[in-house]
Amino acid sequence: MVDSQSNQVDVVTMASIATGDRAAFARLYDRYNRLVFTLCLRILKDRGEAEDVLIEVFAELWDRSQRYDATRGSPLSYLSTLARSRAIDRLRSRGKTTTASELNTALSESNEPAPADQADLGEQRSRVVAALKALDPVYRQAVELSFYDGLSHSEIATKLNKPLGTIKTYIRQGLIRLRDRLRSNSDDVVSRDTRDE
Amino acid sequence: MTNDDRDNLLLLAAGALSDDEARDLRVRLATGSPEEIGALAEAEAVLAQLPLALPLQSPSADAKAKLMDRIAAAGGNEPVTMRLTSSPSTVDTRSRLPMWMSLAASVLIFAVSLALMFASRRDVRQANDLLKTTNEELATARAELVGKELSLNSARIKLAAMNEAMGAEQLQLVGLAMPKRDATRKARGRILWDKEKNQWLIAVYDLMPPADKGRQYELWFITPDQKKIPSKAFSTSVAGDAMIVVDVPKDIGNIAVAAITDEPMGGSPVPTGDIHLVGKIE
């Protein structure tokens, strides 16, 4: 599901970081800082806080690089999960709700094009966008509310005024369909890569 | 893990469980199967890509500098052993023991392990013996229960027959007694003659089974002219009880006496054994 070649590159990078290789660390930061920052910004809706969490996340990755287990997930998955976790922690400790205008302000800034060496991420991004577009809106909403807003299933049920069982089904089905969609897209990529060799 | 746990893995990955639910599930996942752990990892991998769908934003230009300063201040430029597993970093803090102490410690640990192993084997044997004994006792109890159930059913049938006979509109009661007084025996019997159905219900008490196990008791209709007409052969219980129901032959005429003798197993066409019970029919 994650592009296998880029994943392999990332795993090697993580291994280098574990040896204290700062250049490798810098490469990883260059590759994923926008993604991590965007995720933090989406959750926290404040650029300053999002940047604080971005730095915390990468610093933590550096400190615990030897604990990274490639068998448990890709470096992207590791970073994303860590970033979300730290951002949600910050959100809860803040206890503040952000208005739509604050969100729009936060999101209206720099939207630079991806650097050339991140072409693979761009391709991956296209697949994810397509998979989300194909997802039923109620499933997408439930998944995003839990992932980005840190709401539990009961909180989502209250917010959307839906039964708890329904929300659980939405989230499960949403993830299952996303997974299946991204799998089939990934197979296309793999077969295409194989053909190119 | 339960089926609910497996369903909740996706919710866990999405962060949709409450803190308590998530913590409890992670504890159970620690002993989960590779498939379950893999399912969670896969779900997390899917979610990890969600931010790719967002319009990417860039942090400030000096964010990287701040970060690199921070890790430089924390140190970590020295080469570190590379590991791709989640084992924590370790520093060798073991003190260096003399070789003989290490060897002695190993031997001691081995001896203790052996002792524990033998102890546990003995415990297992004892547990097996206890289980075997318990099973045997259980089988015996079951057999006794079955026997009691059969006895109970038999008693029910007898009671029903007795009730039916007692309810006959024309009923004659005949007593059966030993032909000779015997202080060592107290065998006796009763005949309930249902005149309407022309049936006898015979109940005997304390008529111990014949000593010769190849013999049974047999009932005889005896006419006034001493004809001895065989009826049914039957056995008594170990307590000497028996209840039988027989049809009185239609063309028998008058019956003067009822008698019970012991005969070869299955009965005899003519009386050959001793008379144990006899009763006069009025």
Can you tag this structure with a few keywords?
heterodimer; A: 197 residues; mainly alpha; 9 helices; 77% helix; 0% strand; globular; B: 282 residues; alpha+beta; 4-stranded antiparallel beta sheet; 5 helices; 42% helix; elongated
> Approximately how much beta-strand content do the residues of chain A carry?
under 5%
Structural class of chain B: alpha+beta
* Global Rg of chain B: 46 Å
Average pLDDT of chain B: 82
Strand order of the largest sheet of chain B: 1-2-3-6
Beta fraction of chain B: 15-25%
Runs of chain B in which pLDDT lies below 50 for 5 or more consecutive residues are 77-93
Structure description:
The complex is a heterodimer of chains A (197) and B (282). Chain A is mainly alpha-helical. Chain A contains nine helices and no strands. Chain A starts with a helix and ends with a helix. The model of chain A is unreliable at 107-114 and 189-197 (pLDDT under 50). Chain B has 282 residues and is α+β, with helices and mostly antiparallel strands. Chain B has five helices and eight strands; from the N terminus they run H-H-H-H-H-E-E-E-E-E-E-E-E. In chain B, helix 1 (3-14) runs parallel beside helix 3 (34-48). The longest helix of chain B has 68 residues, at 99-166. Mean pLDDT of chain B is 82; it is low at 77-93. The interface between A and B is large, with 80 and 54 residues.
Task: Describe the secondary-structure layout.
The complex is a heterodimer of chains A (197) and B (282).
Chain A: H1 4-18, H2 22-44, H3 47-63, H4 75-94, H5 100-107, H6 119-133, H7 137-149, H8 153-160, H9 164-196
Helix pairs in contact in A: 1-2, 2-3, 2-4, 3-4, 6-9, 7-9, 8-9
Chain B: H1 3-14, H2 19-29, H3 34-48, H4 63-74, H5 99-166, E1 171-177, E2 188-194, E3 199-205, E4 215-222, E5 228-234, E6 242-247, E7 257-264, E8 275-280
Helix pairs in contact in B: 1-3
In short:
Helix content of chain A is 77%, strand content 0%. With 197 residues, chain A is mainly alpha-helical.
